[in-house]
Write a structure and sequence with these properties.
Blueprint (H helix, E strand, L loop, with lengths): L29 H11 L21 H5 L28 E8 L5 E11 L2 E17 L5 E20 L8 E13 L15 H5 L1 E14 L12 E15 L8 E2 L5 E12 L2 E11 L11 E11 L2 E10 L4 E11 L2 E10 L9 E9 L5 H20 L3 H14 L4 H26 L1
Antiparallel strand pairs: 1-2, 1-15, 2-3, 3-4, 4-5, 5-6, 6-7, 7-8, 7-9, 9-10, 10-11, 11-12, 12-13, 13-14, 14-15
Helix pairs in contact: 4-5, 4-6, 5-6
């Protein structure tokens, strides 16, 4: 039987197998898929699959996967944890979510995450677990051991939106701290078929890594009214760190294979309120040997909100010569509960009735009073405009100062106060001039 991690690395390639064979007959698209494979074959570099902890590349599912994982420049829900840690400081809502991604060959990813924003600061946390059934049989075909190969990742997030104001929306910067445990089950002795205690631990491993992200938001070519900018630009560096293996051995721990580190830049654009486009370019990095890196990947996605409770999404991803299409839908089942169902099809394989499907449920828990605060700001600002129009500049200044107590970077109130003060100063000069005459 397999006694070293190298020998049962047969587990790892299934993370990226193109499809799962089912008893339902597949459509015969051999000619089409062959042409597609040939078209993108040049993108499969010689270093593909040489990194460890490949579960860090498996999407949890949900909105991000439906958009072809082109999410670095969007990250407008809790899925930001895997793509751009800066986004927690600009999210509108406090959110919690659960994800299930039925991957391939009986493997799956389960994820639980939560995030909260306090003024211009954002915080989040998540835990995701990838698992694969692992069974061991002796030479007679008898099962002698059974368990799971697992990779479990814990994530802590913090971010802050610097210089945020009314006109300039700020520069959001965020970081993630990650720890991933690779759990390998104990295996048996070939001669006795008895489980060797600690054999799995010796091949398990611990990875420590960090992410950093930046996000900026602007208005450009906007054809609808909204305070939220319609153009976002994001950049990230993900999974920068190292891993150790060999715990419990006489030789001690040693450095494992490199992590799947990558840098990415993405843009999202919403020309109309119900329509969103997003795109991303990602470059893998090998921090142990900068000359041995995997090939770049790129993705794009589109979202169309059909009604206020239902939308459709689609995405396309080129990764390692392996083009994939994702189709998803989002719908509300309650006012604050949103579901996502996503289907991902790998075009370089035969077209099976099912490739893999992911589900997510997201619960919005409010905005910590930001909407009520904004409503009060709007009321005070409107009062100031009304007083200014009536010539009561002192009252206008009082109203706009109330605005600034709630939001010191509310630029229209600052400009209004300056205008009202100029008017009062002008009247004083006129009065003084009349008095001197």
């Amino acid at each position: 039987m397999m006694k070293t991690l190298e020998r049962f690395r047969f587990l790892l390639p299934i993370f990226f197998l193109p499809a799962v064979e089912f008893s339902v007959p597949a459509l015969d698209l051999t000619e089409v898929t062959t042409k597609l494979s040939d078209t993108f074959s040049s993108l499969a570099g010689e270093n593909e699959g040489t990194t460890a902890y490949r579960s860090l590349l498996i999407p949890s599912g949900g909105r991000a996967e439906s958009l072809g994982t082109a999410y670095t420049g969007l990250s407008d829900d809790i899925g930001y944890l895997e793509y751009n840690p800066a986004a927690s400081s600009v999210l509108e809502q406090t959110e919690t979510a659960v994800y299930h991604n039925a991957w391939i060959a009986d493997s799956a990813m389960e994820t639980l995450a939560g995030t909260v924003r306090i003024n211009n600061a954002g915080f989040g946390a998540g835990i995701k677990c990838f698992y694969v059934p692992f069974s061991e049989y002796n030479i007679f075909g008898e099962r002698v051991a059974g368990s799971y190969y697992t990779e479990t990742t814990a994530i802590l997030n913090a971010s802050y939106n610097f210089l945020a104001g009314y006109n300039f929306k700020g520069i959001a910067v965020g970081v993630n701290a990650k720890a991933t445990w690779r759990g390998v089950p104990d295996y048996t002795d070939n001669d006795t078929d008895t489980i060797i205690s600690g054999s799995g631990l010796a091949q398990s491993g611990l990875a420590l890594a960090g992410d950093i992200g930046i996000m900026m938001r602007f208005n450009a070519g906007k054809l609808y009214t909204s305070r939220e900018p319609n153009l976002r630009i994001g950049m990230n560096l993900l999974n920068a760190g190292a891993a150790l293996t060999g715990f419990g051995t006489t030789t001690g721990t040693r450095l494992d294979d490199p992590l799947p580190t990558s840098a990415a830049a993405g843009v999202s654009y919403r020309p109309l309120k119900p329509v969103l486009f997003t795109t991303e370019f990602r470059q893998p990095l090998n921090l142990q040997n900068l000359t041995e890196y995997e090939m770049w990947s790129a993705g794009a996605g589109v979202s169309v909100q059909i009604t206020n409770f239902f939308g459709v999404l689609g995405g396309f991803l080129i990764k390692g010569g392996n083009p994939r299409i994702s189709l998803g839908s989002e719908f509300k089942i309650l006012k604050e509960v949103q579901m996502n169902v996503n289907y991902t099809l790998d075009l370089t394989s035969s077209l099976n009735p099912i490739n893999h499907i992911s589900f997510s449920a997201k619960i919005k828990l409010g905005d910590n009073g930001r909407a009520e605060k904004q409503k009060l700001i709007d009321e005070y600002y409107s009062e100031g405009l009304s007083s200014f129009a009536k010539g009561d500049f002192t009252a206008a200044i009082d109203s706009w100062q109330k605005v600034l107590k709630l939001d010191k970077l509310y630029d229209p109130a600052k400009e209004g106060i300056k205008s009202a003060q100029n008017q009062l100063l002008l009247f004083e000069r006129i009065r003084d001039a009349q008095f001197l005459n």
